[in-house]
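User: Run a structure prediction on this.
Assistant: Running it now.
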Amino acid sequence: MNLAKVIGVVLIAAGGIGLVMGSFSYTKESDAVKLGPLELSVKQEKKVNVPVWAGIGAIAVGVVLLVMGGRKG
């Protein structure tokens, strides 16, 4: 299996997960106040929405790489 096919499979999987999940979240920790030896930190949960067009586009590019990856040009 060459590199183009591997990337194609990864893109198809990522696009499918993006379509099924719709979004993902992560926690960002930042320092709010530093006063001498005291530190206050804030944890914020961020949510990132994955657009439908991005998931479909990743699947389409993955399929193209799978189909074209096997051809010798």
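DSSP finds two helices and two strands in the chain.
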